[in-house]
Specification:
The protein is α+β, with helices and mostly antiparallel strands. The chain is globular and about 50 Å long. Helix content is about 20%, strand content about 35%. The longest helix is centred in the N-terminal third of the chain and has 13 residues.
């Protein structure tokens, strides 16, 4: 049994290329003086709400031995069934990701690709309430968003991919490919096909039905992350997922995820589905 990794260590940024710029950038993004100043300023002037019209979200979830999970933040515990806990990778394309205050000018904002890797927590004081996401890894494909998030946020600390493809094909199949190069972005290769129906009997039984299962995996209002300096940061989100729009998928073909495979996960056993689109808002952020 491999000991759980340190989320603070895995939050540290390494650039995909070993150039002078690539070696200097992490020093700038991890500068302690800037971090202290930013946190002081954010207590007085909170971050503006960020908005994105997210599309083509593909969720892939697996059961993982809970002993493989890192220690949870204080006041939280893992959602566990038969000694296992869910782990999800969701990849998607943003739709003009930027400040809500920009109004119609947000249409000028770029639409990066993103992949969130996450565990699920329950609040100790509300164990039957909405689950809380614990970020394990985050990846984006545009440096301006990676640098901006790391410079101005504690709860979102993405890594830059060397290559990131998230493609849906005409027949409903598709794939996600992430390569990290020499950097800190994790490696992923998933392929999927449209499924004739839901193959979720084991999952649904663990959550008391299919609707409860899908709400658990998709409907959250808070995400927690570990910072490089070992603090816990929380972000409040608005994610109004319409569960009846989810479409079942089947993982197939070449599958690769060293992170999960090192935890003994059989990738072909994953539960996968697609969310065509949703309006996403980052509402607020704070240190715990």
């Amino acid at each position: 049994m491999t000991a759980p990794d340190d989320l603070a260590q895995s939050a540290i940024y390494r650039h995909p290329s070993d150039t002078l710029f690539g070696r200097m950038l992490p020093r700038l993004l991890h500068a302690p003086r800037w971090t202290r100043l930013r946190r002081a300023l954010s207590r007085r002037w909170p971050m503006p709400a960020l908005v994105s019209d997210v599309r083509d979200v593909v969720y892939a979830s697996w059961w993982v031995d809970v002993r493989r999970a890192p220690p949870p933040p204080p006041g939280h515990h893992y959602a566990v069934h038969a000694g296992r806990t869910p782990y999800t990778i969701l990849s998607y394309r943003h739709g003009h990701f930027g400040p809500g205050l920009a109004g119609p000018l947000r249409a000028l904002m770029p639409s990066p690709r993103q992949s969130n890797w996450r565990w699920y927590l329950r609040r100790d004081d509300d164990p039957d309430g909405t689950p809380v996401v614990l970020f394990d890894r985050n990846v984006m494909d545009q440096l301006v968003f990676v640098a901006g998030a790391r410079a101005f946020s504690d709860a979102m600390q993405p890594h830059l991919s060397a290559r990131f493809e998230h493609a849906l094909e005409a027949d409903g199949g598709g794939y996600t490919l992430i390569e990290g190069g020499q950097g800190s972005a994790p490696v992923l290769h998933l392929q999927w096909q449209i499924a004739a129906g839901w193959d979720d009997a084991e999952w649904s039984a663990a959550f008391g039905g299919q609707h409860a299962l899908l709400r658990f995996l998709t409907c959250q209002d808070e995400a927690i992350a570990r910072t490089c300096d070992r603090r816990w940061a929380s972000t409040r989100i608005a994610l109004p997922v319409a569960v009846d729009t989810l479409q079942p998928l089947r993982l197939s073909g070449e599958l690769q995820c060293p992170r999960l495979q090192a935890m003994g996960v059989a990738l072909e056993s994953g539960l996968a589905f697609r969310l065509p689109g949703v309006s996403f808002r980052v509402v607020s952020e704070r240190l715990l």
